Amino acid sequence: MAEAPVCRVWWSPAVDDPATRALLDADERARRERLHQAADRARLTTGRALIRTVIGRITGTPPRRVPLHRRCRHCGGPHGKPFVPGAGVRFSLAHAGGRVVLAVTEGAEPGVDVEPVPGRSVRRLAPRVLAEDEYRAFQALPDHRRDRAYAVYWTRKEALLKAVGLGIVVPKRDITVSGPGRSAALVEWRGPYAAGPFALFDLEPGPGYAGALAVCGRSARVEQRFLEHPLDDG
């Protein structure tokens, strides 16, 4: 039996300082300048710096020389998950609030997501996101548990979609996952984009956040590392 792939997960605070900005290429610097909010600039800068730092260490390449390309696995267009040509590893990046997370595997495709627990009622959002069985379970929860439950459902589904490089083309109601309080698992994926199998995990972003990781295949081992800065040696 093949050994389960290891997925390494790096967490970093979102920062925007000269050291991280030095790792952006010309296109990324131009994109950063177009962002009006400081928090958005910090998340973009940190994400690119974290990818180049981690992949650079794995491949023995100076971070500034790590190229990031985009190519959709489904239509071949210049969008979709970023990748490093010839690196031999697959990765997924997500950010929300003050958190940035990078998941890296060899030989399996990962998808990672992090979201703040909503600070507002999710009653109107839940029917658009939750499958029928999920919505019944959600409705049975006391009000004070629904915001976090919604974030758990959302991140588990987003992680699955990111693992296969799909986004808004797939209605989230086509995907059924296990509910909060149960081990993360894909229960059913309906529709023309159905995929699987996946190993699905909840992550540990810290108070006020939910996070999830999906890895294509039936099993995986997860290692999480928490950095104080995206350029730290994790």
UniProtKB/TrEMBL annotation:
Lineage of this protein's species? Bacteria, Bacillati, Actinomycetota, Actinomycetes, Kitasatosporales
Residue stretches making up the 4'-phosphopantetheinyl transferase domain: 111-196
UniProt keyword annotations, A-Z: Transferase
Tell me any Pfam family this protein matches: ACPS
The protein here is known as: 4'-phosphopantetheinyl transferase superfamily protein
> In the UniProt record, does the keyword Cytoplasm occur?
no
Q: Which PANTHER family match?
A: L-AMINOADIPATE-SEMIALDEHYDE DEHYDROGENASE-PHOSPHOPANTETHEINYL TRANSFERASE, PHOSPHOPANTETHEINE TRANSFERASE
Which GO MF terms does the UniProt record name? transferase activity
Check the record and name the InterPro entries matching this protein.
Answer: 4-PPantetheinyl_Trfase_dom, 4-PPantetheinyl_Trfase_dom_sf, P-Pant_transferase_sf
Q: What family is this protein classified in?
A: Belongs to the P-Pant transferase superfamily. Gsp/Sfp/HetI/AcpT family.
The answer to whether keyword Transferase applies is yes
